[in-house]
């Protein structure tokens, strides 16, 4: 029986003989009572038929019914239409509710942790965590909404309520996640009481191990969190670490990226060259403390043993930001990964070894993928040199100081390249991922490290490529070619040896070591090569030879060889050099040079049409304007030089320099313009008769 005050406040009653006169809003009556006709004031619901099938869909109505059947009407005293609040009161009072009402109660409690009465909050948490091993096995997944709500509630109350209160709820959430495939929570060490932890270990040992070993489980996500749960429960998983490490390495650096650095088509390609990775540049990592002063790489003389190893001090780990699979912290790192690596030496060793293998094969891809992983490689000195270089790569002091960065990368390896030559190959690919070393850098690498180390590391071809692909303005390339020929005298392929000989020859033209037969030597090295000479080398050789022939002094035999060759590319280079501004300046300043150019460009007429076209263009477009612009005294000095070489050349020069009809007319107009004070008309120097 309700108290009288409460009874008068009810808005419903289960029975009234005359329902139309009852003051309540909901009135029950028997079929035998006086019929009540529907009207404006009442609405009749006939409940004498069959009961409706299925559960009640309204969680609030179902909760009200359960409270009424549990004889707890006092819970209605402060009830509202909020099903979460009503369900929380019911659970705290021991009323059993269905899943959707429990989820609503959990959500309400999570949102009112600081404002709900302590007894109500404690009662809700205890009710939601009630049960044990049998319930965990019977309801492994729970309803999806309830599982999510319980996880949120646990996160809000953990640490606010005593562990004795929250531990059963934590156990229920963890068991639901492991057995039902949900998100595994990262519980703190004190979240479980010993009885709950022991019960969970008995229930979850098998599912935890099978989940960690399942190849279909995300190694960097769920598997790591299952491993964390196993650690919390004391479940031994050491035998699963090697296989998990392999899967984790494949997740961090996928197999298609970790097999090799894929070359990019185009830049720096040299026919017959070894594989030179040309991929996206490695992201610069912040400067490493103490990495400013990097020791010089010791020189190793040719022939000296490279087994001599000196340990290189390791750099400190660099911190970066980027993407790492799994849940990340503010720096972009997965805490579960770092925790697992720190707490499981077997996992750490196997993972670092797998990543080190990938780093040796594809250092650029590994460095890019692990730029933000913050793997504690630097905290475990010894071993994994390729991984250390990728993860601990410091930034260079200057953006274009690749040699400085190369030395710092070697320092990060923690081992001398003389002890492990493969370290040198990895360092070169990290520092020059998108281009070949410049001639000066390649020469320094060869000189400081020695040919034996490059031979052992397999990096000789990279230096050869650097020489052959050097642009024409790289003045150090010929000296590098000579050094390569000297240090690798018998092991260079014939085709590449010929290209290096041609490149070396471009450096000696114009010196005392140039010898004779320049044209034939250049053409012979190019045409006699076992494989096509790179275009960069051919262009450099033609340009150097043409400059030497134009600058003089030039033997007649070389001019004849040039004219007879009819080589279009070589003659084009000769024409370009003859039209160069330095040549025009010298023609105006040196009568002897002008005479020499006239002799050269008048030589060998009719030997080859291409030569005739080139020389006549130079005579008309370069030499004639320069000579016509000279004062009469300077032209006389040119004639004096030509007279000493032979009367025939002097006569040829005078005949060539005599103005034609158009030239004479231009001269008269120029004289008249000078007398009248007007500018003289321009003339291009071409004579027409």
Automatic annotation (TrEMBL):
Residues 297-329, 667-689 are annotated as: Disordered. It comes from the Bacteria. InterPro entries: GAP1-like_C, GAP1-M. Residues 68-653 form the GTPase-associated protein 1-like C-terminal domain. Residues 673-689 have a biased composition (Basic and acidic residues). Pfam families: GAP1-C (PF20052), GAP1-M (PF20014). Residues 2-42 form the GTPase-associated protein 1 middle domain. Residues 297-321 have a biased composition (Low complexity). This is Uncharacterized protein. It comes from Streptomyces daghestanicus.
């Amino acid at each position: 029986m309700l108290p009288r005050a409460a009874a008068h406040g009810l808005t419903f009653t289960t029975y009234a003989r005359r329902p139309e006169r009852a003051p309540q809003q909901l009135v029950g009556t028997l079929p035998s009572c006086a019929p009540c006709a529907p009207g404006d004031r009442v609405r009749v619901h006939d409940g004498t038929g069959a009961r409706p099938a299925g559960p009640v869909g309204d969680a609030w109505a179902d909760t009200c019914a359960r409270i009424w059947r549990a004889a707890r009407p006092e819970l209605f005293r402060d009830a509202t239409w909020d099903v979460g609040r009503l369900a929380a009161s019911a659970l705290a009072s021991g009323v059993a509710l269905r899943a959707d009402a429990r989820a609503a109660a959990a959500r309400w409690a999570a949102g009112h942790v600081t404002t709900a009465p302590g007894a109500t909050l404690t009662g809700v948490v205890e009710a939601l965590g009630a049960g044990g091993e049998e319930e965990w096995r019977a309801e492994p997944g729970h309803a999806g909404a309830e599982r999510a709500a319980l996880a949120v509630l646990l996160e809000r109350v953990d640490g606010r309520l005593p562990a004795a209160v929250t531990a059963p709820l934590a156990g229920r959430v963890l068991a639901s996640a492991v057995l039902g495939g949900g998100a595994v929570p990262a519980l703190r060490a004190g979240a479980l009481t010993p009885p709950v932890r022991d019960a969970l270990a008995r229930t979850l040992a098998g599912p935890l191990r099978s989940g960690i070993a399942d190849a279909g489980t995300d190694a960097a996500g769920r598997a790591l969190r299952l491993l964390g749960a196993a650690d919390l429960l004391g479940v031994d998983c050491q035998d699963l670490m090697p296989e998990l490490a392999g899967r984790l390495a494949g997740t961090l650096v996928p197999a298609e990226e970790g097999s090799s650095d894929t070359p990019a088509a185009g830049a720096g390609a040299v026919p017959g060259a070894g594989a030179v990775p040309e991929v996206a540049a490695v992201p610069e990592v912040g400067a490493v403390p103490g990495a400013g002063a990097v020791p010089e790489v010791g020189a190793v003389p040719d022939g000296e043993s490279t087994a001599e190893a000196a340990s290189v001090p390791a750099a400190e780990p660099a911190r970066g930001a980027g993407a790492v699979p799994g849940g990340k912290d503010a720096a972009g790192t997965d805490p579960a990964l770092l925790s697992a690596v720190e707490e499981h030496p077997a996992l750490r060793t196997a993972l670092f070894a797998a990543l080190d293998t990938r780093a040796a094969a594809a250092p650029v891809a590994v460095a890019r993928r692990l730029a933000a992983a913050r793997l504690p490689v630097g905290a475990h000195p010894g071993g994994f040199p390729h991984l250390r270089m990728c993860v601990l790569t410091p930034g260079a002091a200057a953006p274009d100081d690749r040699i400085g960065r190369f030395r710092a990368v070697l320092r990060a390896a923690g081992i001398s390249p003389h002890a492990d030559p493969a370290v040198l190959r990895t360092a070169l690919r990290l520092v020059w991922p998108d281009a070949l070393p410049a001639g000066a850098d390649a020469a320094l690498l060869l000189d400081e490290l020695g040919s034996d180390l490059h031979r052992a590391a397999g990096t000789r071809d990279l230096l050869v490529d650097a020489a052959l692909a050097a642009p024409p303005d790289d003045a150090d390339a010929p000296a590098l070619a000579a050094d390569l020929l000297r240090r690798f005298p018998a092991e260079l392929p014939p085709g590449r040896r010929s290209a290096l000989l041609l490149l070396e020859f471009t450096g000696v033209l114009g010196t005392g070591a140039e010898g004779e037969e320049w044209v034939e030597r250049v053409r012979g090295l190019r045409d006699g090569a076992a494989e096509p000479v790179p275009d960069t080398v051919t262009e450099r050789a033609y340009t150097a030879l043409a400059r030497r022939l134009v600058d003089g002094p030039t033997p007649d035999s070389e001019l004849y060889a040039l004219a007879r060759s009819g080589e279009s590319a070589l003659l084009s280079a000769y024409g370009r050099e003859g039209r160069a501004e330095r040549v025009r300046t010298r023609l105006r300043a040196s009568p002897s040079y002008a005479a020499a150019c006239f002799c050269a460009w008048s030589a060998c007429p009719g030997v080859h049409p291409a030569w005739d076209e080139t020389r006549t263009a130079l005579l008309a477009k370069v030499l004639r304007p320069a000579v016509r612009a000279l004062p009469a005294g300077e032209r006389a000095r040119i004639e004096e030089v030509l007279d000493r070489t032979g009367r025939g050349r002097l006569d040829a020069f005078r005949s060539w320099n005599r103005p034609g009809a158009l030239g004479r007319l231009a001269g008269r107009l120029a004289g008249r313009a000078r007398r009248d004070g007007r500018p003289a008309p321009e003339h291009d120097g071409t004579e027409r008769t």
